[in-house]
Design brief:
The protein has 201 residues and is an alpha/beta fold. The chain has seven helices and six strands, in the order αββαβααβαβαβα.
Length: 201
């Protein structure tokens, strides 16, 4: 069960900071029994390292920030206040980190691989890939429907690069149930390892 006091503290802290900068899409949510205990999907706070540190050290289990697309398409896909380098520069340490890319926006395979390499160098632990689906006619059209084989290729490549977990498929989203279950097991394993080290000190 989630710590209600911790949840309340994070809501107060992050919502306050987000409202100041008009980050109204930011939210923190407790997960159900199949998910990691406490996940915070956050914006990049326009590169404000102090805010990132506050959130990452507030007791959450997973620090999730989605880069959304490859570096070359950032200006066409993402909010104008965000960018690829800014997102990767602030990846916190000491907390399980996760990001995601939605494919089918016009990116090339080489651009995807290059983005994966940079994300891994930044120290991100978990990466997910899903298919972009046009929400309405007001949004940009789908450039391509990615094949299952391509999704499997990115999953295999990501694991070879050293990501702790990669979820990749047309129906995968950043809050992917099967992925969250696996992430929860990683968190529990990390906690057990940490407790073991403390007991031997």
């Amino acid at each position: 069960m989630i710590n209600e006091h911790l949840y309340g503290f994070q809501l107060e802290l992050v919502k306050h900071e987000c409202e100041r900068k008009d980050y109204h899409h930011m939210h923190i949510y407790p997960c159900d029994d199949y998910c990691a205990d406490f996940v915070a999907p956050v914006p990049d706070f326009q590169g404000n390292a102090e805010w990132v540190e506050k959130v990452s050290k507030s007791g959450l289990d997973v620090f999730a920030h989605n880069i959304e697309t490859v570096e070359e398409l950032q200006s066409a896909v993402r909010d104008h206040r965000a960018n690829f380098k800014q997102s990767l520069d602030f990846a916190p340490t000491g907390t399980l980190t996760k990001t995601s890319i939605i494919l089918g926006c016009g990116e090339t395979p080489d651009q995807i691989v290059k983005a994966m390499e940079k994300v891994r160098v930044a120290g991100v632990d978990v990466m997910t890939f899903g298919q972009y689906m046009r929400p309405s006619k007001r949004h940009m059209p789908v450039s391509e429907y990615i094949t299952h084989e391509a999704f499997e290729k990115y999953q295999t490549l990501g694991m070879e690069m050293g990501f702790r977990y990669v979820a990749s498929g047309p129906m995968v989203r950043s809050s992917y149930k099967a992925g969250e279950f696996y992430i929860k097991s990683m968190i529990e394993s990390d906690r057990a390892a940490s407790s073991s080290k403390l007991s031997t000190c």
